Automatic annotation (TrEMBL):
PANTHER family: CHEMOTAXIS SENSOR HISTIDINE KINASE-RELATED, PROTEIN PILI. One of its GO terms (biological process) is signal transduction. GO terms for cellular component: cytosol. Residues 31-171 form the CheW-like domain. InterPro entries: CheW (IPR039315), CheW-like_dom_sf (IPR036061), CheW-lke_dom (IPR002545). Gene3D superfamilies: CheA-289, Domain 4 (2.40.50.180). It comes from Xanthomonas arboricola pv. pruni MAFF 301420. It comes from the Bacteria. Coiled coil: none annotated. This is CheW-like domain-containing protein.
Length: 176
């Protein structure tokens, strides 16, 4: 008579004989990854290295005499940082703030900056074969920050450079 352990061992041996291995995971240098979000009608992605965090909209203290796109100063874990309405900076139209609003935290020399967005899509990955011309995504003020784009099915995603944004003189001078 076989012991329960012998029976289980036999089950394991027989099941492993029929198991198919998982496909080998392949990483490609041709894959670009970033954080996807929407500003106005544009779907944008920014490199993971440019986005430090994504957090709920903090309470904001207005700054008198500042540009209208500077919503004020926020506080995250004891660190003060400016909160910028990205759509108002780029398009001149204010972002409608909603319950559960999220902001992108961008690191720059001198401290962090929070950027409001209209919608957060999360991680996006694109293969180089999906690269397209930015076209309409890079019109107006967006042209300074979008130099390429990717097409995922029917959606075009502009690669928005937060590093270029942080070096823009107008962006750095929020005082009116």
């Amino acid at each position: 008579m076989r012991s329960p352990f012998d029976i289980l061992e036999d089950y394991e041996r027989r099941s492993l004989a029929h198991a198919t291995p998982l496909p080998e995971r392949q990483f490609s240098a041709d894959i670009w990854r970033g954080v996807g979000y929407r500003v106005g009608t544009r779907r944008l992605v920014s490199d993971f290295r440019e986005v430090a965090e994504i957090v709920p909209m903090p309470p904001v203290t207005p700054v008198p005499g500042a540009q209208p796109w500077l919503l004020g100063v926020g506080n995250l874990r004891g660190n003060l940082f400016p909160v910028i309405d990205l759509k108002q900076f780029l398009e001149g139209r204010r972002t409608v703030l909603q319950e559960g609003q999220r902001v992108l935290i961008m690191r720059q020399s001198g401290g962090d900056v929070a950027l409001t967005i209209d919608e957060l899509y999360g991680q996006r990955s694109f293969e180089q074969v999906q690269a397209v011309e930015p076209g309409e995504l890079a019109q107006g003020r967006y042209a300074h920050f979008i130099d390429r784009a990717f097409r995922n099915e029917t959606q075009d995603w502009g690669v928005f450079s937060l590093a270029l944004l942080s070096r823009t003189p107008e962006f750095r001078q929020a005082a009116a």
